[in-house]
Amino acid sequence: MLGFLNRYFFHISLALVFSAYFFFGLQHLGKFITADEHYWVYERVPQYWDAVANSKWKKTFINDKPGVSLALVSGIGYFLDPDSKTLCVESNAKILTCQTNRVEAIYRDFRLPLLILNGCLLFLLFFLIVKLTNPWIALWTTLLSALSPILLGISQIVNPDSLLWSFGMVAIFSFFALLKSEEKKFLWLTVVCTGLALLSKYTALILFPFFLALILFRFLRADETTDETLRSALKKSLIQWTIIVFGALILLCLFLPALLISPSARDAFFLALPHKLIFFSSGGLLLGVLALDTFIFKNKFLFFVRTLYRKFLVPLSRALPFLFLGIFFFLIIARNFFAGWRIFALIPFDIKDLSNARYYTDTPRFLEALLLEWNPIIFSLTPLVLLGLTALLTTLIVKKKNNYSFFSSGLLLFALAYTLLLLFSNVLSTPRYSVFLYPLFAFLAALGFWFICEKFTPRWTPFFITSIIFLGSLASLITIKPFYFNYTNFLLPQNALISDAWGYGGYEAAVYLNGLPNAERLTVWSDYYGVCEFFVGRCLTAYSFDKETLHPDYYVLTRRGQIRYMPKYDRWEEKSGLTAYRYYNAPNPAWQLFIGNRQGNFIKVVKVNPAP
Q1: What is the per-residue burial (b if ≥16 Cβ within 10 Å, else e) of 281-309?
Q2: Do residues 279 and 209 touch, judged by C-beta distance below 8 A?
Q3: What is the domain count for the chain?
Q4: What is the domain range of residue 557?
């Protein structure tokens, strides 16, 4: 029996991981609707496939994300139900009428392909990391990624970010495998996955300068060898990088032909660059230096830089783990012992622009802004990932050399660059905006656990760590089930938030309302999407409607809706008779739900008092 377990341990473990992934992922799959998701299901995905079917190539531009990978994958749901765009109809009176008996099936059909594909990509991740490291690190990375509440949650949502993280993840690790083995299959895998990540969101453009930086980083860190060998390897890597860039862009244009013929599509692409201009300027400068020095000056300049790097920059590079450890511990201490710190008290977690004067009159100082960007990441990683990261960072500080320092240093630099990208773009991070980083942190945590294993000689240590990671990951999922994307770890005080409900709880509110007497005759106003699709009566989400003929019987109120509604509540009261502002702090709502047991993240149903 023990021999069988030893021989098939990784097979059994992977089977358990993916069984848990699909067990939790299939839960609640059609019973929520998040922000903007209805646009993709009702409008954008159908538009893409209608454009392809009718050869109207300009109309393949469905969004400035661009979200085409999402249309390709979730399009399966559209083929299963081509009438999804008729699911909800808004009347002239702003009443939203939905075919509630079809909602769950349609959203399940659009979401299930995403869940399945991301599961397959995580399975591919295992084999990529085996190629780079060893089966234990690969298993732990896959486990921490597949059972990450944030990654599982986004994989249930019809949104471009649901594929950005998975295609981007495979592109990064495939490029690592290409640098290590130089096998052509990894080159083409990198091309395809980089292109599909770009087709998800233009944020994936950051991969181009990152891959270029990795090429330089490997050259500077290369073990002692002949100059000619180093020059040859560098030249080959630059050619491969060029193939990746042009291959990914060709793939982008192939599936988004509007980019070639529509000025608005091209404008959306180039508008994605100014926010990232500093990175692409530095990437262009780096490319120019590498190309000129490699193909004209025979790397004389780079060999000089390599000498300087070995003398001066190697010790400085060890400061990077100190920086991350400092951010981690400082944030955890600050949030728990200095809860009234103005930067967290005055800037809401869910504004988009970091310097939005509507909420905060002063632009945050650099350190404050940096902490604000890392705040949602730290508190939405599972405690096990944070533990593994701490082990890794400590090891990098203590040990001068380890077998995986190239991967760890490269990914830490990427995480730092990604954070700076958000800062320069004036975007306040949320788990959705930073979803790219979660599988990378899972890998770094797995490296940390491997370094712990190396400290302990018993053969059972990896088995014990596997059990702890598996059971701990299950516990994290169970604590937030089924609202996975709202996961917040216990290190954040219970009265603090890092995200809003994002549509969660709307189904449960509708179930309560549907159970009321004469529910079909009730009129409900909701301050956010995700309720009307499941409610059998008359439903409103518009702020402006005829107050003479429509009088809501109930309000459905959320934290996110409160932020949107309150700045102009007096206008809406005058125009439509809305008095929701009186009920957000109502002590005895008819029904309420706290997402993740955090009272600030509420959804409540309140009965509207009749007008005097």
Answers
A1: eebeeebeebeebbeeeebeebeebbeeb
A2: yes
A3: 2
A4: 506-607
